[in-house]
Amino acid sequence: MINIVLFGKPGAGKGTQAEFLKQKYNLTHLSTGDIFRFNIKNDTDLGRLAKTYMDKGDLVPDEVTIQMLQSEVDKNPHSSGFLFDGFPRTLAQAEALDRFLESKNQSITATVALEANDDILVARLLERGKTSGRPDDQDEEKIRNRYDEYNQKTAPLMDYYHNQGKFYGVDGIGTIEEVTHRLTVVFDQF
To answer: I want to staple 8 with a disulfide (CB 3.0 to 4.6 A). Which of 13, 36, 114, 159 is the partner?
Structure first.
């Protein structure tokens, strides 16, 4: 079983690449963003709570995210592995995920970060915001706030996983096919 954490700032292409990776490597894709959006669309308690944070460009609190993700893992007991997209975002989440996976005799195999320049990503998100209907993709100030949150809370996770020998950086700029090829080279090592 392989369990991969896919990192990258909003707009780095995680969702696009995750679709290919889950099929090629037979992984269950768990995107916290997709799970939150599903709950928001269906007006669940979790969706309403998550929306209050997301509308401000803030991250959803750890305890809410962790419980939600554990539930999703438990729904897929026969999976050959998981592709975690958008989680963990904080050291506390990473440690909670490690403990949870250990309780199931599993661990994180590797973390892979799609790396890209902020200005390029802002342009991508503003363009995506024209068609996605997502308010957090239509306001440059909110986008940059998300990047500040990422830098403060998520970037330190790279050190956490690097110290475990589980961190791989991949250039996220280029065509979808070019980025997919770079990711495949890394994933084929596992």
So the answer is: 114
